[in-house]
Amino acid sequence: MKALLLENIHAEATRLLEAAGIEVETRKGALDENELIEALEGIDLLGIRSKTQLTRRVIEARPELKAVGAFSIGTNQIDLDAAAEHSIVAFNAPYSNTRSVVELAIGEIINLARHLGDHNKNMHNGLWDKTAKGSHEVRGRTLGLVGYGNIGSQLSVLAESLGMRVYFYDAVDRLALGNAVRCDSLEELLSTVETVSVHVDGRPENTNLFNAETFAMMRPRSLFLNLSRGHVVDLEALRDNLVSGHIAGAGLDVYPVEPKSAGDTFESVLQGIPNVILTPHIGGSTAEAQEDIGRFVAGKFRDYVRSGSTYMSVNLPEVQLSPIDHGARLLYLHENIPGVLATVNSVLGEHGVNIDGQQLTTRGSLGYVVTDCANGVPQAALDEIRALKATRRLTALGQVR
């Protein structure tokens, strides 16, 4: 079993996988489609962050790939449908870096409210400009959260502890934490608050969610943050509103187009505008978060290889399993059509296989049957099951006789 880890994934992932007997190859930067197809020859497990795109073309060129891990919250860099069609399980780290992103957001809100970036620049340039003009406490001010998932809700709690009044809007009905107030529409939220922080996912319909029309809904002299996805904001529209003064400051950590590797050139229409914080997609880039992400996703790889566990998969049926201690375990991904389980059991019965336990779960067009066989399983039975029309992928763990 061999894993390829790209984009400087934390060394904890390598340590955990190697301890499980998996050979690991690491690379620092991202790969484009052609480079990735070439690099995946002989690879079973692929780990990526946000830059590398696992597209349908790559998947169809390397269908033997068994699992992919997004060492991040988002999974929009993976074609999940294509992965599912080829029985490639996908995992992510939905919680590991939420605190890091939230702390960056809190820091940027305070920095923008106090114009600390501009004061810092002036001091480095030798200018002493001691003034309270345009500088405000965040206590008592209103924060609007667009998206109230893992990050938005945690930011809600911390902001409230600073004395901010929190409002949120989410397309999904979410439970308000603390004293946060739910708004019925995005327009209601934007017209109510003084600071807006965006925490939505990468689905296509969120493209340019913030545009000239949306920014016009915001209160004059508001602050704006986007630490979610780069394509969510029309940067030209944001620039116009910053230059006009309608928006008093902005903090961005993500961009529609980002450099592949550290040290590459970055350009943006927002560069050089006062009270604008630009950071290089480091919301989750703390030592603590990256170590935890490395441990979490690599742990999912290990569990899948050892036991067939797909718990917390984002694209295949979920089964939580422990490693087998005797006999064999069959991991059977198949088309979700009637009669498959009966056919599999008939084949096993004809070959004298004693079924010790069995689980079946489905997700959309896929079914996942996990069968523990106390007395092992003959190769002839595996060959017969693999030949079934409904078969997507069959893996046998343990005793094959």
Automatic annotation (TrEMBL):
This protein's UniProt keywords: Amino-acid biosynthesis, NAD, Oxidoreductase, Serine biosynthesis
Class of this enzyme: oxidoreductase
Pathway: Amino-acid biosynthesis; L-serine biosynthesis; L-serine from 3-phospho-D-glycerate: step 1/3
Top-rank taxon: Bacteria
Pfam family, one: 2-Hacid_dh
Enzyme nomenclature, EC number: 1.1.1.399, 1.1.1.95
Catalytic activity, as annotated: (2R)-3-phosphoglycerate + NAD(+) = 3-phosphooxypyruvate + NADH + H(+); (R)-2-hydroxyglutarate + NAD(+) = 2-oxoglutarate + NADH + H(+)
UniProt record similarity statement: Belongs to the D-isomer specific 2-hydroxyacid dehydrogenase family.
Functional note: Catalyzes the reversible oxidation of 3-phospho-D-glycerate to 3-phosphonooxypyruvate, the first step of the phosphorylated L-serine biosynthesis pathway. Also catalyzes the reversible oxidation of 2-hydroxyglutarate to 2-oxoglutarate.
Protein name: D-3-phosphoglycerate dehydrogenase
Organism of this sequence: Gulosibacter molinativorax
